[in-house]
Amino acid sequence: MKSFLAAVKYTFLTLTGLVTIMPILYVIFSSMKSNQELISGGSLLPKVWTFANYKEVWEELDFSLYFYNSVIFATVTSVLVVFMGAMSGYVYARTDFPGKRLLAILVIGVMFISLGPMTLYPRFQLAVDWGLASSIYTMPIAAMYGLGASLFLYEGFIKSLGKEIDEAAIMDGAGYFKRFYQITLPLMLPITSTFFLLEFVAEWNNYVYPLIMSAGNPDMKTLTVGVVELRNMGNGAAAWNLLMAGSSISIIPVLLVFIIMNRQIVEGLSQGAVKG
After folding, report:
1. How far apart are CA 37 and CA 39, in angstroms?
2. For the CA atoms of the chain, what is the radius of gyration?
């Protein structure tokens, strides 16, 4: 009976893994097919393996520029959001101020409202008025919104550290900002790594905001916007082979970030599970 249950468990896990990874394998293998073979269907593996789709997408369709823009946009936005969340969480965890409870209720209330479509035009108008819409380096500033989740995640994590460290630093003469930057912020590295990856993936896949911001400036298009536009690059038919090649390229940075920060991310999730 015990071996039967183990067989059922591993069969279920294997099927779940195959269902999860199959769309990714389909995109990767399809990116090495000609468009005609892709449209006509057939087996998962290409009849004739070719990397010409990658070369055409990268060299002839400005994907190197889109790739660079996506890296800048996702990285800068993630750093800003994580930094703002860490500072806000520290203030909430370590400071009592008038209206703190009311502000927390308002932040929680806003978390249940879909802010994406509602704030799209105000953020676009704000970026235009402040001169942020003309550069890929300033575009992420107007993309920051919805700090509620990060605020409360950091607040819970900082409270779990205890106040003894802060009290000892105060006795040594450390000020408010010094306690945050030199003592608490380094201790938050695991949760910061985890939250940075989650935010990086979200901004890397962000489509609507970069699409609106790059409408009048094609040099600011990100990889997500460029991948969707690849459908119309074929001669009379949708260029699905180029779309698949572009999609394959777009997943590489996310995998690299996860590989580089794997240890900190796992540690952060483990600490969150224990302390949460």
Report:
1. 6
2. 23
Nearest to 161 by CA among 191, 197, 140: 191
Class of residue 267 by CB neighbours under 10 A (exposed 0-12, middle 13-18, buried 19+): middle
CA dist 200 → 27, 64, 70, 120, 144 (Å): 22, 19, 10, 19, 12
Q: Enumerate residues 6+ apart whose C-beta is below 8 A from 62.
A: 221, 226
> Buried b / exposed e across 206-240, counting CB within 10 Å, b at 16+?
beebbebbbeeeeebbbbbbbbebbeebeeeeebb
Q: Are 90 and 153 in contact (CB under 8 A)?
A: no
Length of the chain (residues): 276
pTM of the model: 0.76
The model's confidence at residue 15, banded by pLDDT at 50, 70 and 90, is: very high
| pLDDT averaged over every residue in the chain | 82
Kindly list the distances between the CA atom of residue 37 and the CA atoms of 41, 46, 83, 87, 232, in Å, as whole numbers in the listed order.
Answer: 6, 8, 48, 53, 18
Quick one: pLDDT band at residue 276, thresholds 50, 70, 90?
very low
Q: Is the pLDDT of residue 141 over 50?
A: yes
Amino acid at 135: S
Q: How far apart are CA 125 and CA 131, in angstroms?
A: 10
**Distance between CA atoms of 214 and 179, rounded to whole angstroms?**
40
Question: Mind giving me the DSSP string for 2-35?
Answer: HHHHHHHHHHHHHHHHHHHHHHHHHHHHHTTS-H
